[in-house]
Write a structure and sequence with these properties.
With 254 residues, this protein is of the alpha/beta class. It has one domain: Vaccinia Virus protein VP39 (Rossmann fold, 3-Layer(aba) Sandwich), CATH 3.40.50.150. Helices cover 43% and strands 20% of the residues. Strands 3-2-1-4-5-7-6 form a seven-stranded mixed sheet. The longest helix has 14 residues. The protein starts with a helix and ends with a strand.
Length: 254
Amino acid sequence: MKKKLKKINETEKEYWNEGKLERSKIKKLRRHAFYYSYKREKKILDKLLKDFNNKKVLEIGSYSWAAWFNENTAPKSLTCINISEKELEKGKHLASKKDFEINHHLMDANNLTFENGSFDIVFGGAILHHLDIKKTIHHIHRVLKPGGKIIFLEPLNMNPLYKIYRKMNPKERTPDEHALVSSDFKIIREKFTFDHYFFDFFTVLFGFISLKIFGDKKYDNWINKLGFNLDVFFSKITLLHSLFARVIIYGSKK
């Protein structure tokens, strides 16, 4: 029997409010595997976020913007939502240091209560996979103005190796989260035209080797660099996209 959305929301809220996730193991691997990917990711986001200037922006989450925005990012207004009081407070703390308008709302992203056409851009970091994709995409489409844009950075779960890893390490994620699969892309495509950048297949494999050799240090090494360069090359081949671990989705409202 499918779990009801209300119960899923309660569990998500509990996990984030109480800090139940255990990610110390994966963080060590990420520091190797994503060392160069994070630099590429930041460069891509810096380019995409130029569209945020003087626009009304909604973040599904509450503080990814703090890592994404650079000194040249100045939206007309930024609205942040989160289902977790604790996570929302983190965003409020960061917002106190900015000179543009930032508003925070305790809200379920599956059921946005903003009026139609309220925003120019909706974005989020690692958030869609915690939600009912169909419901959320419907609401994102509704609250965007005509031609409004989306930017999301999300984990993927199409590679069998990642599926096995996730099964073996359940404490690293909330019980109901679901990294994106091909059917989720189809749902997004119903409402948006979009393109994407794929990250991290060889970097994960080579990062694992690098971690074993160097330990939790010296991330800037030839092993990680080789994995990164292989990823950049092979991510251009559509048939191989299902191998990758993460994706940036960017597009426009139909």
